[in-house]
Amino acid sequence: MKILVTGSAGHLGEALMRTLRKAGRDVLGIDLKPSPFTDRVGSISDRAFVRECMADIDQIIHTATLHKPHVATHAYQDFIDTNITGTLNLLEEAASRKVGAFVFTSTTSVFGSALVPPAGEPAAWITEDVVPVPKNIYGVSKLAAENLCELFAKRHRLSVIVLRTSRFFPEADDDPQMRSAFTPDNAQANELLYRRADIEDVVSAHLLALDAAPRLGFGRYIVSATTPFQTSDLADIRLHADRVVQARFPACAALYAAQGWRLFERIDRVYVNTRAREALGWQPRYGFQDVLDSLRNGTDIRSPLAREVGSKGYHDTVFTDGPYPVM
Question: Is residue 323 in some structural domain?
Fold first, then answer.
């Protein structure tokens, strides 16, 4: 069974290629950029290129995309061409060839403005039932691509799973206030409480989705580390999340102090992965307790796969005011 991975030079694409190759799977990686994990170089917006790459393909994992960091450096049309037209090209070719499973990597960014409640309200409990309110072209284009996936599942009987992934990249935050207040490791450890996943867990969710797609037909699932919070915590974490975390993890204060780390004082949303765990049989391995265990043992808080893939960045240009410009 041959698997096509789009975006094979990117963070997730490379992680998937490494994992699939190591398992001895028959896999073809495509990307705009040459890399040790890219077998064919070209654009998914080029229908002829997509058609050529689809020969003998049985399953597709579609990770190729323009990301949020490209919003300030790329035109709206670029997002349409890659995120929407590119996805449409892949879906049409997959449907015409009766591909067995199609997994689309989406993002929790599609929720947009729904992620931050009004002042004075509890933190948002983000499940798949929350109605997306995209706030930039990235979110708009990814949501449109999701809807194309659903259309092809319903009208063309293509087995499609959409995974709304939370943060898994290792780069520093785009917010200058966050960068000045927290080291990347500190901030990303905190995010595992509510809005981040380790890339090894993101890969395992994608591979499980491939297997589950024919059984499920279609589904959208949030992929994020399992939060320790409950709905009863939402009012408290919006005001003093650090107290809630310290009460739940008594060893946290000393372990963080030894690193010179701090918890976030407030948290405004919590991603809930319950449906992904139930529908896909997904069991994420990495979460906040693992961070504390790693600090206690003096080991890296990241998975071996995350360390292998490392940091890639999103632009060839180096910016003086942050990892990427923001609009």
Answer: no
Q: By residue range, what is the domain housing residue 210?
A: 2-309
**pLDDT tens profile 245-299:** 999 999 999 999 999 999 999 999 999 999 999 999 999 999 999 999 999 999 9
* CATH code, 63: 3.40.50.720
Q: 113 in a domain, yes or no? A: yes
Q: Which helix (H) or strand (E) holds 190?
A: helix 184-191
Asked if the structure places residue 73 within a domain, the reply is yes
C-alpha–C-alpha distance, residues 117 and 152, integer Å: 33
Q: Structurally, how many domains does the chain consist of?
A: 1
Q: Please state, in angstroms and rounded to a whole number, the distance separating the CA atoms of residues 221 and 241.
A: 26
CA distance 317 to 327: 17
pLDDT digits (tens, 9 = 90+) for 197-212: 999 999 999 999 999 9
Say if 327 falls within a structural domain: no
Q: Are 15 and 61 in contact (CB under 8 A)?
A: no
| Alpha-carbon distances of 108 from 84, 202, 304, 305, rounded to whole Å | 17, 13, 24, 22
* Tokens of residue 206, six digits: 């994608």
pLDDT tens digit sequence for 112-164: 999 999 999 999 999 999 999 999 999 999 999 999 999 999 999 999 999 99
